[in-house]
Amino acid sequence: MGKAYSDETKSFKERAAALVSEMTLEEKVFQTLFNAPEIERLGVKAYNYWNEALHGVARAGVATVFPQAIGLAAAFDEDMMEEVGDTISTEARAKFNMQAKYGDRDIYKGLTFWSPNVNMFRDPRWGRGHETYGEDPYLSGRLGVRFIEGLQGHDPKYMKVAACAKHFAVHSGPEDLRHQFNAVVSKQDLYETYLPAFEACVKNGKVEAVMGAYNRTNGEPCCGSKTLLGDILRGDWGFDGHVTSDCWALKDFHEFHMVTKNEEETVALAMNNGCDLNCGNMYVHLLQAVRDGLVEEKTIDRALTRLFTTRMKLGLFDKPEEVPFSKIGYDQVDTAASRELNRKVSEKTIVLLKNADKLLPLKLDEINTIGIVGPNADNRKALVGNYEGTSSEYVTVLEGIREYVGDRARIMYSEGCHLFRDRVQGLGQANDRTAEARAVVDMSDVVIAVMGLDPGLEGEEGDQGNEFASGDKPNLKLPGIQEDILKVLAESGKPVVLVLLSGSALAIPWADENIPAIVQGWYPGAQGGRAVARMLFGEFSPEGKLPVTFYRTSEELPAFTDYAMKGRTYRYMTNEALYPFGYGLSYTDFAFTDAVIIGSAEDGAEVSVTVTNQGTMDGAETVQVYVKSPMAGAPNAQLKGLRKVRLKAGESKRVTLYLPSKAFGVYNENAERVIVKGQYEVYVGSSAPDKRSVALMKKAPACLTIRYDGETRIVE
To answer: Considering the entire predicted model, what is its pTM?
Structure first.
């Protein structure tokens, strides 16, 4: 290797620039592709940038498969997110070190992971929403930052792995239009809703990479957008990492977006506006684009310096003994400790939506026979979601309950119905498992219905053979005849617990009125069945909160293609939710007392409250702080602070959260974050302050106020 770029007294950026300076134009061009080839004469090994770690190391063999991202978000637990990220990056390094030993440099074998997905889950019909952290910019940003910190680590010199915030920006369906769609959004919505999570990942999380989106935003294709990549990401936010295109997104420029005429114009637009890496093969046309004067070679040098800086930060150009993460052995993959963590994480994600007459937890010593009915009861796909790895063990809900109960009660099982068709057997008649379901119910003391969706119904366009609308949901109903079977179970008069496994909100008003206990289990990970079983029988108190709104019907939503936030999510909706954002019940009872606020809107304030576990079970509660601005047209009260608190029965803790001045600001029509004159309402409690949350929780958050009497002030 040449001396200039192996000199460890120089910065990684200087070394990367020196390395690039020794390449030919052709060598440079091929290094802008995700599957960058070897340059033997310079000591550059082949490297594939494409890897995934949404909720575990994905698509490359055995790894810990944590709950899907939307489930992780439901824990409302920042510390947990970093612990999950750290476990993933340990397994990532272990697998990379093993693969490198055997010369395996294939796709999904590198250290650059295209996670997390911090797009806003603005519409529950979007198939990829379960990859995100939900509908709230603040929550998504905080969880994204801590996940990134877990992935990238805290070593002063080297990154453990490189994270990537995606898909930048204003991207959340429809999936079947994404290659030609133009997301039109106001400056106000752009800055208030669609950018904050990305900004947090860049400024606070120091994320190494950002991925552009397939669609256009306000006419510009995101992977070649001067506004997004140049003005905002690098200009306003000072991002110094690299940008990658989404996969095969560049060809959309001339084939579907029609903003360029041909391949040369496409690659010039992307490269000149700061897209450094091409997931695809379009950048081979950079050779001709340079020769034709559409792209300067120094622009490619800039892109490659960024890319090789990332590889050098990962220690790929230094001696293994100098890189601390090179010592992580393959024995660190799929350990007993990681499986235990996975179960505990799964337990934290479960949300208790309804529990009439305290049906849950179930009392096993009073039960002889348990009926388990439903298409998701024994469905492995409903454990994991998409972008998943391979677990060495999968525990479905049926298996988890059977293992927990042992010989203390009899388990009767029926699939009940197909997940989305009207029959299980193709040659059978409709409702071909209804009789069996009735028989199971008749013999049972309690019935656990396990229903919902799986990633074959909601996901990415073209992924896993999605059955509905390119991965998007046509509506929010339980698919097929699931609700019909649920009605059969309820008509029996037996107590019924509904467990929903899904990556998104379902509209279940009938179940809310007629089923006594309802649990949202998301896609709970490979250990999910054990977690659900332990929750149902009271081994722990549920602590999850909804990171998305559960609507009563999709008819109340604006058009899926409308990216204006009016009428969407808890921050802008005027209708009453079925189950609101931030909501989740517990087996124990938490009281919030003596709430005070000290400080001012313009300089920041501290909110303090005493949280007491008044119940008989140990448990955890999320302290949630919401702020409502008096500015005309401002969003509803928005989440601006959270803290997970674990309390033994009878225990109290004083919790203090700091709200910086920007927590009181909202964006105006000119995309300026402003604090305006008037009274600010600050709510602190276990839920959002809306009427539905108060009715369901049977308590209201404390309302504190701060006045600001000065002139309108711009805050950052």
So the answer is: 0.98
